[in-house]
Amino acid sequence: MPDNKKRKVDDNLPNSWAQRYDEALAMNIKPTFMDVFDRHTCYPFFSRLCDHLCIAEIVALTRTCKKYSGLYQYLLPIQWDVDHKLRRFVKDPYGFRSQMARHDALVSGSFVLQFFERVTWMESDLDIFIEHGEGANKFGSYLVNKEGYALTLSTEDAEYELHSYEEPRRYGHIQSGKCFIGEPQTKIQIITTTKIPIKSIFRGFYSTIIVNVMGWNKVYSVFPLSTSIQHKGYQLKPIDDHHAPLVNKYSRRGWDMQEIMWPEEKRINHPVRKYRRLGDRFTWTIPVDSKKVEWSKTPDYVLEYASFRMLSNHEYPGLDERYIDYQHPPEQHVGPRCYGIDAMLFVSRTLKHTYLRPSHDYELECFLGVRVDQSTQLELRKLELSKRPPNYDQLIQNPHALYRHADYERPNTWTYRDDDFPGWYQAWEQNGNKSAEPI
């Protein structure tokens, strides 16, 4: 296995890269690109060149010859080091990620985009999304007590939209008490949501560029082809007076900001399509070293099978009712065009965790619903007569209530079907080939 750590080079050693390079020049032998771009013989050159290669160029090099086929995998822990990125905000990135694992918190927004792009915007902050409750309070206490932050209240606008139907609430801005000369103070925001954080992330951002998620052990770019390869961004909210400055900000940073894709644009393997999930084949997923991190009790597939539906606001007016004239058909509407991400919760008494699925998809609801209904009925029938809920007969006769509305005590012998959920979703996806549908 190659050593991923940057090595020290002693120019005085015999046969060092510097000596061999000087000898080649003395013999009028011009080094080729493959001579210079070699981590074994010319590591300083190799490392400096890699610092300036974008992901598209790195992937292109892996396809040129066998020598560079493993370049991306070799560079992953060097060029995409999430702990190094976090050290701008926290002293102990392992402890920070352990808190994320303990409380099922997610990081999103521009911090994750900077991680994938390998850049740093000093004016940016760190946004943590976490479900409202004790976990959010404990996370805030950790930042104050362990990282030296102080809690300050703020109502500043952010890059996400706070939907009234979800009622996400800001815990507040946590602003560092340490000020570095020539640098702005670091700032962390804890955004609390009434439901699972991934729902607020999917439905809150205004552009595909910043729909990226960092978990405790993996980092996800949901639209990597358009964001990191093509450097394009598509609107998830209509461009109004609030969103226009935000869109302009990313235009200045080098992205081609557009409203939607046009029908004639190339769509093969494009991540903008009707049905998506966080961990699908269109997502750029980077696992990060977690040996020193406390592991989460929530399986990765709960997050990676968070699925959603994308539609244009002209196809499905309900995505943004503020900009739709219901007296006219969509083709006559000339207002701002954008996509929308639509998703809703999926819960069941035979699932320990809460999942996210596309809204307005009766087929998927029935596909998953019949499976959790059957599992719930089986578990109810297995109960001893004395341990059955008072409304047992009603539950058995009304399958819909089994996984949507009913609330009753489940014994320790109750069997949960979370491990089956990824297989169920894959079966539905393959059966209908939903992921192949473009918008």
From TrEMBL:
Superkingdom per UniProt: Eukaryota
Protein name as annotated: Uncharacterized protein
Species in which this protein is naturally found: Lepraria neglecta
